[in-house]
## 1
Amino acid sequence: DIVMTQSPDSLAVSLGERATINCKSSQSVLYSSNNKNYLAWYQQKPGQPPKLLIYWASTRESGVPDRFSGSGSGTDFTLTISSLQAEDVAVYYCQQYYSTLFTFGPGTKVDFK
Amino acid sequence: EVQLVESGGGLVQPGGSLRLSCAASGFTFNSYWMSWVRQAPGKGLEWVANIKQDGSEKYYVDSVKGRFTISRDNGKNSLYLQMNSLRVEDTAVYFCARAARDYTKLNWFDPWGQGTLVTVSS
């Protein structure tokens, strides 16, 4: 199974400041046949299901604010919130879909400083 | 509007059984892989199982193999999870989730249902 790790476990950011979350996979999730990274990012607020933010590691889902961006390739990925807003306080998860046995990272909690 | 609505959760004793259902609407159900994903209280997300459009392929996380069975009824636009030999560690909110792209196994999940809580306790 592909193991996903995230860092940090939590971070506190001032309103308007940048938040950076890292995700690492135990093996590459880059498919050579199409040169796509099989990596997604979700946001989850308390009492709600996860909400899709990013897929193919860097493609923003329709309706997601452009302050959210994804980058990286192979085994190392980053989710960046360029200017933290009040509504961004949440837990963020990465997920690999390279393998049928889908796996998620443990999550990163983002809060206000 | 695409919608997934789970039901069937509740309190069950260790060793007991429970059947979860997910009612789908707003899309062509028989065109998509479907999954169950769970979240233990205060913990992260864990993919549990998925099933192909026609039910011919099914995959499970190791921890539920031999105890859980995923199935679907395309005529009723419904997904199911039969859970047997339940353990305390199966306590979680169980989400129904659709593959984002039709006829494609390797997918991110979108949309998700609101979830149904399963509590395994004596």
## 2
Amino acid sequence: NAGVTQTPKFRILKIGQSMTLQCAQDMNHNYMYWYRQDPGMGLKLIYYSVGAGITDKGEVPNGYNVSRSTTEDFPLRLELAAPSQTSVYFCASSAAPFEQYFGPGTRLTVT
Amino acid sequence: ELKVEQNPLFLSMQEGKNYTIYCNYSTTSDRLYWYRQDPGKSLESLFVLLSNGAVKQEGRLMASLDTKARLSTLHITAAVHDLSATYFCAVDEVPQGAQKLVFGQGTRLTINP
């Protein structure tokens, strides 16, 4: 049981490039989430999903897109990367209202 | 808009001492969570508090929730070095369904021998 997995672990992007952060969970959770964590701060919700085919915006969705075609996978797409998107990105899943399980994170730098 | 405030933000304490971290939030919610994060690592769930008056304990940590006061506390008893980490509280904006968590800024706890 791997829990929540994320790839890549690290990535450096140039301004204007695009990329997809991958997230997968094997706990059969309906709910999945994407967060970003800036240095010294708490997490902020970017997007979340209540099941395959259903996604919704969180607190800071601008500059990102998501899709959820299966229960297991919830990729996050960054279009036209900007320096303000430099952050650590965490994916999580849950069987609400219980605890969320977090992936190991992706450290992204945009230069 | 829900706001979550933790205090203190930084706490340095000696082994063996007791201390409390406070988590205040601005709008009604009865779903509150505590997480631990070690440097450079992901978040690990500590406690799930889902009703007024809920109290949970695990080892030297105890968490409680007072929804009327919009306050949760994380109490550390006889601190040991292994508890050094950053602790986050998170409050759910919605009463059911998928969680829309708002996190506090975190309390960076350092426990010295």
## 3
Amino acid sequence: TQLLEQSPQFLSIQEGENLTVYCNSSSVFSSLQWYRQEPGEGPVLLVTVVTGGEVKKLKRLTFQFGDARKDSSLHITAAQPGDTGLYLCADPWGSNFGNEKLTFGTGTRLTIIP
Amino acid sequence: DVKVTQSSRYLVKRTGEKVFLECVQDMDHENMFWYRQDPGLGLRLIYFSYDVKMKEKGDIPEGYSVSREKKERFSLILESASTNQTSMYLCASSPGTSDYNEQFFGPGTRLTVL
């Protein structure tokens, strides 16, 4: 099981600003998932990135997978209060097709101030 | 709409009590998971199950057991609760039928052991 480091651990910014959070590993990811957890709820999948160098966009969120597949970033443009939450990266792993388990990073807790 | 439900949102128990946390999914998923979530430590896998009556240990199984008698239901059991098991417990399920399986989470049970 590899270790996933997320940075920063906490981030508090004003509405309308841009931000980037990071997920890094010492090992190569086969793929990487990003989840968002809102207060009082369980995590919800935002995106899965698979190919090195891949960029995926989800409205104001841009996800990038590093060329070497050892890191990923999430960039939010013009942050809104609804973006507040805990952002988690997760590494699917396991030996059986379809039975992947997830190793989660420790998360970035994002607060958007109105 | 897919749904994972957990029997309680909040639970307070005394040291030494036997505690049952119940999780039900209505998506006919093969895989089910139990995690605990602690500040600064992220989500850590306790146990998972990829079929009825099948279970495998995750990263932190000590002090816990599980039961999966029916496909839709996965129970986490604390045989003798201790204060260090005070935590947020999250249940999840995934289809187990394709690559990059998304995990669907319940809202969590916040357990306090006094």
## 4
Amino acid sequence: QVQVQQWGAGLLKPSETLSLTCAVYGGSFSGNFWSWIRQPPGKGLEWIGEINHRGTTNYNPSLKSRVIISVDTSKNQFSLKLTSVTAADTAVYYCAGVVSTDDAFDIWGQGTMVTVST
Amino acid sequence: QSALTQPASVSGSPGQSITISCTGTSSDVGSYDLVSWYQQHPGKAPKLMIYEDIKRPSGISNRFSGSKSGNTASLTISGLQAEDEADYYCCTYAGSSTFVVFGGGTEVTVL
């Protein structure tokens, strides 16, 4: 059964770079798209972007200029970098995967709270 | 402002049925049979409940059903139970420029 576990720094200052990593265990890493999704406190979900094992990426147009999603197939891991963060980037960040379905997020990480504050 | 429009809240009594709507456009909801629905309890990660408009993943109760008409998708919860109290989000593929969009979420209260 596929599971994911995520980690990364939880407290950043404005203008710093957010960095999170998600590891995939127990199943196929290849052949699936892996996404990052965030949720500001008390607000809804926002898709950030996705990557597959070949390194093909797609990004939310509103975040594209600041986002880099990368993959390390040797470790079955994918990572998120978000540059020049501000308080508006404060959110719970989730990694998620499309595994058993062809097009819906059926695997989710536990979430990482990232706070941007001076 | 979210790309997909959901009511902020819906409530019902135990045993009743409720329906949550999710309105998009002809460029997203109306163009693809790819609406999914997620249930989120406080402090927890979202959980997939419905995908491809109407399909239920393995292990999801048949009290949850999805439908779609034109640019509006709907999630119906029948036989409402206390454990169904949660936030629900719709989501869909929106083409090769926007990719994925979510609704603003609906808080379901069991009275």
